Amino acid sequence: MTAQHLELLNPAAHGALSVLGWKGPRPRFVQIVADEFATAAATCPILVAKSEETGQFFVGAMFGFKPGEDLAIEPGEETGAFIPLDLERNGFYIWQEEIAIDPANPCFASAYGEPLFESNGEPADALRHRQRVLGRLKAGVADTDAFLATMMAHKLIEPIDISLRFDDGETLRLEGLYSVSLDSLHDLDDTTTLALFRGGQLQLAYSMVASLRQIPVLARRRNQRLSQG
Q: How far are the Cα atoms of 156, 181, 221 from residue 75, in angstroms, in the given order?
């Protein structure tokens, strides 16, 4: 999102604007931040990828193996239990320390959303929620970048190829993804391990490793959906 598409949020220009929360399936891969790891790991794999725009590593939650499928949604759910902050802030951004919006985002298109401002121009509940989300994201991106830098400094990030064969005969191979090496974690000396533990990075690393158990869970759900047509 570039600056030319954004408008700085203010009650004079946007006092009548309302907003809808995230609805529907989540994208296949969504960027998350460090304080989301524990929640995400309970429902989906957490993996590292490289940004196509910057070439920098980032951490994401994987909800499906193909675009358009959200395998972490249970039958009857509109959305999954875990909604990443990056989706919760949908349409809202921080621009030069101010809150900005993309007025073309569909979340602002409905008259049935929640109002952003009270009649006196003060932020309403919906806007206060987005303010908290943006604050968590801003701090979280910095924390996650520091975590990745630490993992790479200790050579703990390794490529992971995901190759799965499904009941319809299709084989999917996902490349360009990375995770934390459990073997390399176990090879760290005691001093380094203690420093990572005290800094909170060790817990984050183990959350990532544990989340890989969700890959066969998502694959099983995909097979179930294939069998149900």
A: 37, 34, 11
pLDDT value at 141 more than 60:
yes
Nearest-angstrom CA–CA distance, 89 and 32: 12
Place of tokens 């995400």: 40
The Cα 227–Cα 229 span in angstroms is 5
- Quickly count: other Cβ atoms within 10 Å of residue 29's Cβ: 19
Can you list the positions of beta strands (E) in the chain? 7-8, 18-19, 29-31, 46-50, 57-62, 92-95, 98-101, 114-115, 157-165, 171-180
Query: Which of 129, 131, 125, 139 has its CA nearest to residue 36?
Result: 139
Written as six digits, the tokens of 227 are 């069998």
Count of alpha carbons within 13 angstroms of residue 166, beta-carbon side = 20
Q: For the segment 28-62, what is each residue's pLDDT rounded down to a tens digit?
A: 999 999 999 999 999 999 999 999 888 899 999 99
Q: Which of 223, 225, 213, 227 is nearest to 165 (CA)?
A: 223
SS3 135: helix
